[in-house]
Structures are given as structure tokens and as C-alpha cells.
Amino acid sequence: GPAGCPRTEPLSGSSQELFRGADRYDFAVVIPAGTVECFWQFSHQGGNFFFSYEVQRATGIGNSRDVLVTASDPNGFQLGLSQDVRGQINFLTKDTGFYQLCLDNQQNHFGFMQVYLNFGVYYEDFSPEHKQPAERKELNDTLEAIGVSIQRLQTHTFHMWRFYNFARMRKGADSFLLESNSSYISWWSLAQSCVIVLSGVLQLHFLKRLFHAQTSGSHKC
């Protein structure tokens, strides 16, 4: 892709199983001014596609932190759009293929953006409300119940990982904001201190001139 990230390979049916892509990613990417970066994620039909992002910092005139994010299916049809500092796009994949994610920084012509991304796809094979009555009876078996419990635990753990990554996004953005504010406050405080010292020196100079005694002639009060 344009950002140097290769397309993810299919999860199955490929002769190169060792080189297939991952189901989910989380990383930060720098988007130059006036450019669009795109990524592709493979998904089978019936998968749950999730995508969340957070603009951690932005530079340039105006310092706008809004970024335009779009998600499209393998046929190029747009499935979701978000234009904000942070956001999420979630949908159910109806087609098997590569889904495109694009981040647009064309509104910012003079500075880059650093955006943290967390996207991927997961599959929920277990849905007890759709099972047949005969299959529901099999759940009473001990091994089946253990398998269902483990699958539920894995699903809950996965969603906890998603919320954890979203918290990491917020923490990273807050860290950059605090660092920027600290630098701004330090320089502004130094400038104010210099002005105060200079004002004191000038006041002392003019006060000494008012009480300066003349050596000849009449004395002024």
C-alpha cells in the first residue's frame, strides 16, 4: 500500500500459510501534509470488522487534528466515514476479499499528523440462539460446555484487548498534548520573567534619575 504496509493474505486456502497476514493490527502511522494513506485488511464473509483511530499529534498552521477516515468493501463501496480527532467504524463483512481503510490529511497542507490505528476482523462461530434444539441438548455434555466456556472467554478477552488499545490511544494523545503544553508554558514563563526583570531595571533607573543631586546651581526638590 501507499504507507508501505503489505496487504494481508487470506486466512485459509493459501499455499503460503506461513506468510499470511494477521487478523488485527495496532500501530501508529505518520501522514504527511496533503496526502492520503490507505491500508487493506482481508476478511471472509460474515466477519466482524472493527476499526478505531486516534490523532495523537498534529503540526502546521492552524494545528487542526481532524482527519478524514473512510472504509470500503472489496467492490469499492463505502461502508463507513468518520472525520474527527478520534472515532470508530464497525460493520459486518458481506463479501470475501480485501477491505480498504484510508486516512485523508489533505486539509492540512503545512503539517503532518501522527495517528494511532487499531483495526482487524474477528469471527463469532458460537451463537446459541441460532442453534437447533438437538444441538442445544449436546451443550449439556461436560466437554461441550467446557469448549463453549473457553470460546466465550476468548471472545471476552479479545474485546478487553480492544478497549485496552483504545485506552492506549487516549493515553498517547494526552501524553503528546501535555508535552506540547509543558514546552509552551516553559517558554512563555521565561519570556514573562525576562519582561519583569527588565521592567524592574528600567523603573530603578528612572527613580534614581529623579533623586539625582546636581553639583551646581539650585537644588530641585
Automatic annotation (TrEMBL):
It is a single-pass type I membrane protein. Residues 36-121 form the GOLD domain. Keywords: Endoplasmic reticulum, Membrane, Signal, Transmembrane, Transmembrane helix. It comes from the Eukaryota. Its main location: endoplasmic reticulum. Pfam families: EMP24_GP25L. Belongs to the EMP24/GP25L family. This is TMED6 protein. It comes from Dicaeum eximium.
